[in-house]
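Agenda item 2: nicotinamide-adenine-dinucleotide complex prediction
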Amino acid sequence: MSDLDSKQIERMSSVFKAQTAAFEDERHRSYKDRLRDIDAIAALTKRHADAIKDAAAADFGVRSRNETQLTEVAYMATAAKHTRRHLWSWMQKEKVSVPGNLSPGKAYVRREPKGVAGIISPWNYPFQLAFSPILAALAAGCRVMLKPSELTPNMSDLMKAMLAEEFDESHVAVILGGPAVGEAFTKIPFDHLLYTGSTHVGRLVAKAAAENLTPVTLELGGKSPVIIDDSYDPEQAAIPLTFGKFMNAGQTCIAPDYVLAPGDKTRPLAEAIIARAQHSYPDWASDEDYTAIVSDRHYERLNAMIEEARAGGAEILQAEGGDPGNARKIAPTVVLNPPEDSKLMQEEIFGPVLPVLSHNGLDDAVSRVNAKDRPLALYVYSKNRKTARKVLEGTISGGAVVNNTMLHYSVEDLPFGGVGASGYGAYHGKAGFETFTHARSVFEAPVWHPSRLIAPPYGKLFQMIAKN
Ligand code: NAD
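Presented output:
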């Protein structure tokens, strides 16, 4: 049954009209009012921290409360603080120099709110991936409509109720529903649309938005590789790799997707990762910090990937644990050398399964990464800075980390976004403010400006000015 009815379409369109009218009434939301909006986002996050953890736990079955605190609640508190601290400077006009033949005059860029922003968010970090773009849009002075994921209904209901405490619907509104609602949402002529989710749906979103010439930011996924060189100790690499891969049970857009390591290091690395996972989650099945898979479909998809690799002759290493019962949990898993044509190596894994493969030197590793779509993140482990730079220069990815995993995400001053099949555009910090503002170029001429002398009939003065 379609999740869309005519009432929902009517509601979407009336909210959009109300937001557009409100924006027309207040095209330049003041600095003071934007600070109020940022403070409201921070206050809501703090006030509802426990409810956010409860909702995530209810949606996933098991969702580590510590990780919800770190990646959703604390992340948003830090992001709001950062935005508050820098908003004044981001809002200032940016002067540029005026060429001599156009003097006197002033030239500058004004950062103006685009208008009504649409945001479509996924389920894997259901609070942060909705609230972080909302924060950026509000800092920019926009109005916002959010369409959160249908796979995390408790969080979607909670966010709707939370936002209604601080914002009128003509300012921030939440539209609930699944793919059909999402599709209708993308047909709204927003002034900007930020979509976070799969590459497949991202293409549909871009197509729909093109009809209205709505500018789009696509925050998509992909296979984020890890390259390890000869100089790096597998035991050392295993620590951040295990953390990055098994946090949220691997359901993270920038989780390491597969590892390329020197041949003699693959087995020690695989064993070190499993040992580290065993240390982190002594009994993953009952461990409240080891998150479950979000839905039956994803649970079955991941198990099928493991079984396909096993059938193809790959060795499977798994952490030991009890019986997870009905919880959709999958043991921390490393797959040694799965076939290149297996689903594990062809599709984004998005779960607690990490292929570890041998490379034949850095050039081989780089060319194997380049044979796939451009990833959202790339991780390189090397004690040699030149080697790390060589890998960065030889590849293209949305972001990258040297000798660690995922940390770039938390540096608010780093624009976060993909490239190629992992998306385009960026947000976080200033990049988010820029995404939701229009860079309006202004030239201010004095009342009398010498350019008036340049007009037909062209004479000697013109020849002097126009010469190259
Ligand atoms: P998804 O694409 O299935 O769904 C995301 C959102 O799109 C949901 O709100 C959904 O209802 C909506 N949607 C579905 N069909 C639609 C349509 N036809 N038109 C408009 N909207 C539609 O993605 P998902 O499974 O929720 O998320 C997982 C994917 O997201 C992974 O690929 C992951 O890598 C990626 N991701 C990327 C980032 C990032 O920041 N780049 C962050 C998290 C997740």
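Discussion summary: The radius of gyration is 25 Å.
Owner for follow-up: CH.
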